[in-house]
Amino acid sequence: MTILSPNMRHxxxxxxxxxxxxxxxxxxxxxREFAESEIVIPDGPFVGRRFRCERQPYTxxxxxxxxxxxxxxxxxxxxxxxxxxxxxxxxxxLYHLFELSETVICGVPDMDMAGDKWREDILPAIEQSRFxxxxxxxxxxxxxxxxxxxxxxxxxTLKFMSGGGSDKSRAGFTxxxxxxxxxxxxxxxxxxxxxSDKITQLEARTRxxxxxxxxxxxxxxxxxxxxxxxxxxxxxxxxxxxxxxxCAVWVTPEREHLVGWREAESQSEARATGRFGCPSCGxxxxxxxxxxxxxxxxxxxxxxxINAEGKLCGDPPAADTLGFRWSAxxxxxxxxxxxxxxxxxxxxxxxxxxxxxxxxxxxxxxxxAPSKLEETSLVAHELMSRMMSLPRGIVxxxxxxxxxxxxxxKYLLHWIVVAWSPGPKAHIVDYGRIEVASEDLGVxxxxxxxxxxxxxxxxxxxxKGTSKGEHxxxxxxxxxxxxxxPVVYAFCRExxxxxxxxxxxxxxxxxxxxxxxPKSTGSVVKHIGEGYxxxxxxxxxxxLVEVDADHWKTWVHQRLSTPLESVGAISLFQTSxxxxxxxxxxxxxxxxxxxxVAGKGVVVKWERLRRQNHxxxxxxxxxxxxxxxxxRLVKEQPVKRRxxxxxxxxxxxxxxxxxxxx
Length: 662
Hints:
Blueprint: H1 6-23, H2 31-38, H3 58-67, E1 73-77, H4 84-99, E2 104-108, H5 111-127, E3 149-151, E4 157-162, H6 168-171, E5 177-181, H7 198-203, E6 214-218, H8 227-234, E7 239-243, E8 250-251, E9 258-259, H9 267-273, E10 275-277, E11 284-285, H10 287-295, E12 298-300, E13 305-306, E14 312-313, E15 321-325, H11 336-346, H12 352-363, H13 372-375, H14 380-384, E16 387-391, E17 401-408, E18 412-421, E19 425-435, H15 438-441, H16 443-460, E20 462-463, E21 471-472, E22 476-480, H17 485-494, E23 499-505, E24 525-529, E25 532-537, E26 542-548, H18 549-561, E27 570-574, H19 577-587, E28 590-597, E29 601-608, H20 614-628, H21 647-653
Parallel strand pairs: 1-6, 1-15, 2-4, 2-5, 5-6, 16-27, 17-22, 19-27, 22-23, 23-26
Antiparallel strand pairs: 3-4, 7-8, 7-12, 9-10, 10-11, 13-14, 17-18, 18-19, 20-21, 24-25, 25-26, 28-29
Helix pairs in contact: 4-5, 9-11, 11-12, 18-20
């Protein structure tokens, strides 16, 4: 029998205790329990203190939803500086690494960010916990070098993968868990990839685990088309309901319910008077009531509500993705006054548009609506998708009338014909160019010949649908008179009264004059429309249309951005995409900008990117002519004293009266 010394007995006793401890089944804690037991705040106002869900009650709702196990994909978005990165990125990662001892893939937009995220967010949280002893002592990340893969003392591995680089860098690694930060920054396909987008490629690393996979995504919301907002909308679209301390109705206050700051004369006054109001009863909440409401808050998914008895009504959507969002009302790090002061400042900063974007994204967690400039940003390939089944030159069966626009140059005349159908909807029936033989005939005579050639084409009309023999001619043809004005005037005087000269006024037009809307009709101004007016030129013996070019160019681009099935959309005739390429280049030859002009303030200005913009000019004139003929996006009440004539009536009566006879 071997007799052990006291020191040896102590060693054996400790080893036996360790063996028994490891062999006993261990209860797996929930993510919420793990967070409150293990995580110490690494920075910020609560640095060095234990993580507690009560400080930011939304965190408890997030963890409880994740712990339910009902969703294999969890997407979170909320205001900046509200604990989002720690709660929705770092803690889920550490939970799987150290509580479950699982390998985790961390998705980041680029590998430079991988190093930053490791040093600034992940490593400080580990160093503040008891898991610091498991940090790797060798390899990447152990001494501040490049971070790609780290193996911890418990055998778990953290593998960083980026949205850039070769797709093969994502293909050879498998894990049940993927945690992605800055999701919208990864929402771009690789330049050389034949596969799907980067996030989907990262998710493919979990395919072997089926519904046991766990995908976490965290990001500040960017735009409506951004990956985060789209994931939220296609997921559970969860929101936080708070019980009003006054009426007890469960509500979700948003930006419009922060009141009292708009009338303030200073930022400090806005901070003192701003409060959240109940969307149901309108009563103001003080910060104590707001905090208490958040402590009692509950999560509800799209289609669900909480009744007066506090019972959750409705079934959650059948979605694989938990879409979780919180906003300023749930961020207890800031008072209502703090948010009100930020709103007051944002509304008075010189760069108001940028300040508004920051408030939407970083405070209210709302996608940024496209700016006016972005609304009119078109690219050629988008126009290719606007083709209908009708071939070139065929007018839709339900057409109410046609209008046309003509733009004149020294060597080419560009024309375009638009059909207007109920809705209204616009369809480009035909467009083309007529050669101006300036070298042979002289500029003036050559332009007159080209205009007469187009008049013959226009008066012969275009066939309507599949009917035989029935042709439709434009009710109005507006000819740009900015070039060779006397020739255009002479042509319009000799032609049918449906042909009228038009002058575009705007910042980028040939004429330096800005468009000024007349205050009333009189001996000169015969008609005032939306962004145009008709004047009688006594000496020239004709009517002239003066058009706000900037307004109608914006109108055209908005219609070209409108979905084809919606009111106001412009469609193109069916042909090969290459045939529409020249038109697309003309329609995208200018870009809309905004500029401060002394005496006028901030004004819209279209800047020419390419010289070839003639079909664009013709189309905006044809569109303004459509409005003159009665086309309205929003139906107006009829004027009893002088009813509006229809397009058909104007076409039938065009030989009897001029533009001013309305």
